Amino acid sequence: MHALKGRYVNTMHGLAGFGPLARFGDTARESSPYGWRRWAASLLAIYDTERMVKLDLPWWNVEATREAESFLKSRPGARVFEWGAGASTVWLARRTGDVISVEHDSDWLGKFQAQTKDHHNVALLHRAIDGDNADAYVNAIDEFDGQFDLIVVDGRQRVRCLEKATSRLAPHGRILFDDSGRARYRGGIEGCGLTEDHHHGRSFCVPYPDHTSLLRHNG
User: Fold this and answer.
1) What is the pLDDT of residue 11?
2) Quick one: how far is CA 190 from the chain centroid?
């Protein structure tokens, strides 16, 4: 399965640089972010954060992304915490006041820093998940005071991160939990005490329907 996935990604990247498809990717940025043209361009950008940043898209379910953007428009200057840095970090930085993003992979973070250098409202943290630092990644949110309007759970140890996030969420805030349809996450989501808006369907970067949920306090 891993080899098949790798061949698919390499094929998409090869197509992305091919003549008409390369021009398609360049012009899709001007189309509706939630239309079929931008979504199709995202398929060519799978695991290519630079292309996703140019498309101004996160790797989430399309309708969940629309809901998250609508929420952020209602909260100017929103404060965001994110587990798992990537194209979503820049997408959030363009729409919020401050973004704190924690990442476990130092090599990936080193490559990604160039894509956030012009966004002075982004703080990138490296917290390894090994040895004596096993809890540092999950506990990174404890390094900051106050509440967050949006918390994104899209990295490692997601159920533990969700448990941390629930007590740090602003009263009318949202937690965005990506890949929320996976069986290993369902118990944590269903037992977290928050109301879930579960989106399943067209998702950026992948040709199959996928899941992203937004969680909020009851009432």
Assistant:
1) 85
2) 21
